[in-house]
Amino acid sequence: MLRGTSTSTSSRCGPSPSPRSTCWPAVRCACAPTWRTEAVPGRPLTQLVDEGLIDAGWAQALAPAADTIRMLGDRLRAEQASGVGYLPDGAHVLRAFQRPLADVRVLITGQDPYPTPGHPIGLSFAVNSDVRPLPRSLTNIYAERESDLGIPPAPHGDLTAWSEQGVLLLNRVLTVRPGAPASHRGWGWEQVTELAIRALVARDRPLVAILWGRDAANLQPLLGETPVIASAHPSPLSARRGFFGSRPFSRANALLEQQGAEPVDWRVDGEV
């Protein structure tokens, strides 16, 4: 579905782009190293497995949505060809599904990727490690982590360390138009991620769901008997209405241990 390919600087950007030039991370021109990320139509999930873009277990679980995923690839390619682009870059669109399905023990859902070029990395709430300042929702997540576990806020927003421990950081919608929040809602990603959540529940393995905000709470009927930690969203608009003080990290670990699973180390890279 998605791949990165080298390309020469396009005439659209030119040698001296204006301040309003469109140079997203997915389409770098004269204002950045030249490479292009494309959505490639018609690629089967097995090929994505071979290329390391998706775990084999996830490919099997998402097989009923294979046609939808190919259609989304076609649509992203059209966005790219028109010069609009999309985020995150192609190699990261399915990044939440790169870690083994069998290893997932915590689900944290987001809405859609950050619409700021250079920020999203395919994991909900996470950003590239060099992004400063951190998004305010992530700043609040770190503040609650400190209150809950005594871990000071991290200097970066890359949550890959959580993903590597089986925390599925899953946005309901996996792509967005640069600068346009929620622009890809209704495209079909919701069906893909709903299927993913149902697959998690069907495994009959230890699992805890952390649901932040109203949109996430609407997923609760999909979760069956899965233990749920629900609160307000960490956004500055709602964090003081129930997110702060909700202790999601320690509560998730307690629920995992009750199911016979190992707790999550909620530190990120570089923290001791």
From TrEMBL:
Which PROSITE patterns does this UniProt record tie to the protein?
A: U_DNA_GLYCOSYLASE
- Could you say which EC number(s) this protein's record lists? 3.2.2.27
Which reaction is this enzyme known to catalyze?
Hydrolyzes single-stranded DNA or mismatched double-stranded DNA and polynucleotides, releasing free uracil
Subcellular location(s): the record lists: Cytoplasm
Entry annotation: catalytic residues: D112 (proton acceptor)
Query: Which terms in the Gene Ontology molecular function aspect does this entry carry?
Result: uracil DNA N-glycosylase activity
Region (Disordered) residue ranges read 1-21
> Has UniProt tagged this entry with the keyword Endoplasmic reticulum?
no
EC supergroup of this enzyme = hydrolase
Q: Which family does it belong to?
A: Belongs to the uracil-DNA glycosylase (UDG) superfamily. UNG family.
Q: What is this protein called?
A: Uracil-DNA glycosylase
Q: Which organism is it from?
A: Microbacterium tenebrionis
Q: Which gene encodes it?
A: ung
